[in-house]
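QUALITY CONTROL LOG
STEP: pairwise intake check
CHECKER ROLE: data steward
CRITERIA: each record must contain a sequence immediately followed by its structure tokens, with no blank fields

ENTRY 1 OF 2
RESULT FIELD BELOW
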Amino acid sequence: MMPVSKGDIQKHLKNITQSLNDCCWFIHRPHPLTLCLFSSLQGSRDPMFLTGVSFPPDWPVYSETLIKLSVYGENNGHQQTVSKEATLSTLMRSDNFLGSSSFSVTDLLKSKDQQLSLSLRTADDSATVGTVVVSRMKMGEIEDGEVDHFTTDMHQKCTLVYESSHGSVNDKDNGPIMNAVFKNAVCKVYRFQTVDSKWMLVREQMAECTLSFSIPKQLIALYIQEDTCRIQELKDLGELSPHWDNLRKDVISRYDQIIKEYQDTLAELEKLTGPLFKPSCSKGQKYLEFIPINLHTQRMRVMCPRKTDSFYDVVTVGAPAAHSQGFKNGGLQKLLSKYESEKKSTAYQCIYYPPEQTAKAREILCVVSQLQPHISALADQLLQTAQQSSSQPLRDVLKSLEEKTEQFVHALKDELVKSALLALHAARPGYVSKCQSSAQSSPARESPVHSDSIPHHKEYDEEEWDRVWVSVAKSLNCVIALVDKLQEQDNNNQESAPSHTLADVITSHKLPVATVVWWDELAVLVQSLKKCVAEVAERARRSVSFVLLQEAACSMAQGLQLQQRRDAVFSQALAALACGFAMRLYAGLEDKGFLRQLHAIGLVAQFESLLSTYSEEIGMLEDMEVGISDLHRVTFRITEAFGNVTCFCPRDHYTVEVPLPHHAFQALPEELREGKLLRVLPVLFNVGINEQQTIAERFGDISLQERINQKNFEILEGYYKSLTDTVPSECLPCFQTQTDIKELLDTLGQNVVTKKRKNVEILWLAGMICRRMNGIRLTSCKSAKDRTSMSVTLEQCSLLRDEHQLNKDYFVRALDCMRREGCRIENVQKNIKCRKYAFNMLQLMAFPKYYRPPEGTYGKVDS
């Protein structure tokens, strides 16, 4: 071989695998082209070599091009890897040389089945030392526009075919819609043998997602906006007694501090450029706490002879958790429980409202902010429609106005609003309850209002609040009555003079003067309705704002700090969910059954977690549980536009808008085009698999994991019942294995209550059920790098075995091949700049069998 420089190696070998057990280095030469194959000899005199080579379009490879294969052994053990700085001369020592063989491109093209079996000859051509099988495959058979390539095999084992960082523009994986959200794809293609000795092609593509940063930045902006509004609402409470006023000032000061911190965080995020994911080594960075860890999408596309291509998607993300805040005192689940206890113990300085009532207060506040402007707009539209020539639009607008007003009344006629109004009345300056006045014979320092000293109804003018409701009802009834009268007059005029319309009745000066003033009457009634609704809304807004003041005041510092933690965890979880929803939607745009299910009942999103219930990972799991549970507050809406996925609404009700281009949007069912809110039901299943889980199972406590799995099984089971009641079975995807979903659910139910160590069957069953129900799959561990990689590759190979007849004899080989050469080792490289899973031998002894990586791919590194 001709000598090459270190610079040449780095220039031409961009996609080199570093493992000497299974790697190929190729050097671009005009003629001939030399390929150097390395295979470890340690422990085997019959090594297996699996690799592939593709030729880019700009390489001058012709039919007469000669290709020489030189095979070298490496005698320093399985664990050694080739660094980027290593030179070929170091590796290709004469004592490592095994043999070589040559062939021309023409030889390969003209051979039977385009496959050559070549004898490896020693350097002096005196002996044969083995064989190498070379086969050619045209990538156009997979996707148009790809280059030709060939594979080299020793003993025809399962093969890694080629590696690419791009796909063709006609590829469904890389179309314009996908490319708007998913970037920097890494692609690997494999060729595996089936049970009937045929070959399947498997394409594995991993990509970053623009939503990793865009969703958190939008959320932070919404948090700032909401907290700014909250400050204004507290100021709008009006004059309060000194005690309540001091508490209000303290709470406003705390909100100001949070707003400043969020503004600084947002400013730092706006400065960032470069990768679209947060690497695992940055998970403790404070200014990145809202960004999900190592968020990537992974799609496996399976292409079998005479069968439709199949797609299997999964989102991989580090467990949504507040790493920058630490887990010394536990995670959100534990902290929230502690917080509620502290609120009760400090209720001497404020009024204690339980969590369900504060949640109700936020819901009422949201309803008020949405419905009041809607009612006002409908009232104005009613006046405009009254001047048109047709009575039907007028009746339609009136019906909408009536419905929205009824929703408004139903939401605000709540006992919480009434009791909050009483409490706010008691907080005004100069208020002294009867129990206080009887106990005080002389002036004294004002005492705070205890939860048991909320004024009774008889101490407050309830009739004033009731009169407001009566005014709303009267105003609406008067509007309805007047419109009925106008329509009756219109009908009479049409019978006597068909040319007269409703607009004539209202506005024409040719008609009797009495009818001319009716439009003015309607305008007065409409304005009265708007005024009454505004008054009710203002009172209700103030009352529930006072409730939220109590929540913040009862445990001010801890409560607002806890909100920051919850905001950060929710941001990470929402970014991952939005990524999964977009990926699932784009994949199902042509699936009418999926789209029907989407708008009829929504989707299930199954989060798989591999965290242990020991040490800090307990806190991570507690954070993750609350963050995923909070996703119940999220809905999705599909819009027509090219643009970014966006989210809006206050903390308790989020809507994420997913844009589609015109042609895709117009092909959707009518319900989706009309902007129906789409529900996603998140469920979480956790099974720890590492050595820390071994300690937890033998000496610690795994009740958190057991509770999570049992609770989420019940949620999943409830979704399945709704699914079977609403969506026909033909809407669900077909699988080769015909096990019924109900049977899978029953088995899962048995497993979540069975006392079994590291029962990973829970994860397998939950993932299988999710896929059969058209769901969104997400897999997590601490950083989505090591344990997640083991889980994703195991799931992919299991799908190949169960759904695509992967030869069972090749299952472990395929698994090792994906872990050694596939997208997941590239993910490790992207995160820590090292192609090593962060495991050591002792740790792996505690892992379930199929979660262990092949030798040479792991070693203890900083993550």
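ENTRY 2 OF 2
RESULT FIELD BELOW
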Amino acid sequence: MVQSTCPNVLSHGTCTDSSCQYAHNVFNCTLCALVFANQLDYTKHLSSKAHRNKTSGETGLLLFCSICEKYVSGMKNWQGHASGSKHASAAKAKGLSPDVPPEEPEDVPGHQLCVVCNRHIPSRFWARHPLQPQHKEREQFLKFTSAVEETEKDKNGVTILGEFDFNIVEPEDAASGVVRSGTIQCQVPGTRIALLDMRLASSQGRRTYSPFTISWASNVPNLITSRSSISFAVRMTQAQFGRAEDRLEFLFEDVRLRSRFIITRSLLVTVGSRADHEMLRPKVPYVPRKRTTRHPETNVVEGIAPPSTLAIPYVGKLTIAPIPPNLFNTLSSGSTKEIIARLQRMYLPPVLNSETYSKHFKHLLWTEEFQMERDLEYYDINDAPLSRYGQFYYVSVPGLAEKRPSVLVGDRILVHPRDSRPGDWFSGGVHLVRKEEVGLKFHRSFVASPSDRFLVRFKLNRFPMRRQHQALDTAFSQDRVLFPTDLHLPKTIPRRIAPPTLRWYNPLIANNPPQKQAVLSIAFREPGSMPFIIFGPPGTGKTVTMVEAILQVLATNPTSRILACAPSNSAADLITARLASAHLKPSELFRAYAPSRNKDDVPTSVASYTHQTRDGHFSVPPMLRMMGFRVIVTTCVSASITSGIGMPRGHFSHIFVDEAGQATEPEVMIGIKSLADSSTNVILSGDPKQLGPIIRSSVARVLGLETSYIERLMNREIYDEVKGYGRSVVKLVKNFRSHNAILKFPNERFYRGDLECCGDPKIINFYVDSQHVARKNFPIVFQSISGKDDREASSPSFFNIDEVTTIKTLVQRLRSDRTLRITDNDIGIIAPYHAQVLKLRTALRSVADAVKVGSVEEFQGQERRVILISTVRSSRDFVKYDLKHTLGFVANPRRFNVAVTRAQALLYIVGDPSVLSLDPLWRAFLNYIHQNGGWKGPSPTWDTSAAVDDNAKYDADVRNAAQDDMNEFTRMIEAMTLGGVQALEEDDDGDIDHNVDRPWNEVE
């Protein structure tokens, strides 16, 4: 096992702790300013994207493929080349492994290497390359880093002694102040040095906040000789958690030579919990994974599928719909931009209409499937043992409880014996799924001993994709459903007043005009109408409205039959439970589950509305009973059960889809295109301003697969919230969840200011006058903190220990409040990165174990009295990183909207404002909080009263300001004849990991 590298060596290049037990022999990459604990990690880094792919402008660093004997531009293109079929064929023809490392040639014909940019420049561009802005910026940054490093050296006989890295300081000590002493000495006899100035860099340029102050004795002489020295002190005082840094600058003059010079010292501190940092710190530095070519499975011995796969009596065969070979090759190589261009040119129809609808979405599905299969490579397990108990072999799967990867009964997992031929695999059917392991059943020829080791490969469950393809292949393609226009608007005016015979199942709806109008528009809608949309912003009761509409359709139309769908099992269970509470009998209401569903996950209130085989697997009753149900509830994907067992098209008079914004359009179409006829009415409920479907392929997202069916319809003019009110759409406006201060910003930003605060005053006003808010009657707090985002060696997902400690402390304060008592279940914690979620859970285990911590996706549709948000990202190297890299998932309007609208009484955000303010949406929100007195910690570094430009490049502004400060310092040093060139650190993200924090869809 490799010994962990000393943190001091990694941070500062040296370690003065004589008792340090870490490894100190490191491998240094001067180009990237990184050090590695061993040669293996260093070698990996040399092949990483960060080291090689510094491409921009005319071309990038050229790599040479020794198999194909050709040059490839940049590591990203190399990955596409190395995983392509032509490369594999060339390797096979030469009898070589395709997994060869790229070679970095010193000389490339027709090119010259720019050592500043580390790029091969075509000779025809060489003359103008030094004039390019990016080359000039790189030169300037190299000069700056060289100048800073030069000033950190003692010189001209002057030595500055003292330890100015305060390391981790506990909060109580930091609040009272911590002092470090320093001494300035001159060791050359006869030399007289004058100290002209001693200052902090934060007092110059644009930096405003620093917890450091400097002082020295009042009678200290400004002359330093070999017989005299100067003592000074640096005091650090900080009341909040987080990190701070500054630079202490000493300006000297050699009196005899009349020459001036500067010596600097870095000041660093982390205010936080030493215990938390020790418990949560990364054990080994993160190194991006290199994507390797997967050897194809040429000989697979199929295992035994579980009995549940036969629980549904399907009629007919499900289409296979494999990815066409030519399309697979198109998706296998090139940049995202190039692949999109090829798809649009060669495969996608130029116009999306009823005739081209199926072709368009089938290709988007294949594109998404291609990426999903590639993302599963991340979970390959090397050297895995198999343990046998009874008839099953068990394999441990890290992250299984988190559905990373998601494994269900009926899936297939492949295992490759370590010493067998590359293409030989055994497929195991998944029979059992436990918390951390799965039980597999292989072919009888499979035998494994406890000492055997296997390569484990997870295979994509293609059944959901195949069901979508089968639905897209159907003949149903009516414009009134797929592409409605003014011609499809109802001819009659929507009913505004309920008939006297109508009985409201939920009396509150009768006093809520938008909900009431939505129910009447649906219940008295003519058969064969265009789809109707219940537009339900956060906390407005869209599911309640949809359930009421279902009940009224049943009451007003005795012959009606309803299929109700939702993207997830939890949402479908909620619909079933609410319909059951309205006294629908098991003979009227049926909840159809996929056979893979775990019975322990089924709510008690729903169990009596299901059907199971004698073996205990979820199934469906005989067709006669199925035809008799008034309402059948399924997930969108499992809607294929009804058509798959032979229920006729047109059987359902209405198809309802709740939370329709979270499903892809092909998923919603499983029920609609398979079962609707010319008389079927379609009703959608959702909010396209909140999170959409989970799409893993950036290509498919750009081409529209992330746009849900409900969002695509609402982008059409006839679904305007005002013009179409009551005929095509009703917008619910009464918010029953949040305090008005919490609701105000997202209301104005996303919902035209239409939402009305109607929450229970006892709940939403719970914290308005408490110690937990910064200003009375404003229950939003932003805790400004400068932390550090880290990554473990095992995962590219980010975490921030400083924010973990802050969140933990906040939870302790909330739970220990004896005046305003709450439980763990009243608190929700949202973090955008999976690693941060895990770190928070670890830190809270001994404090408040029942507090829910999860991603934004896990909180959609939920609410808590208190919501704490950890934004995680705190990279301050604006010169090197662009906005997308710095903010990542945080800079997503829909994620933002969902995150800030979950709180009922208190919203508490912890983050680095210097980073968050780069995004216009976050900058506007931070302005709103600051102007209303909800700010804690260091003040904003920008004018919060200035108007925010949604199209502004605030990251460019910050980089330019940082560039000016660097240039000013560099010019000052150059004036003192200092110079030199060092290197610039680059983005170290690897492409193989870019989807690691994107959750997986619920699969059935």
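INTAKE CHECK: passed for both entries
DESCRIPTIVE NOTE, ENTRY 2: The longest strand covers residues 242-254.
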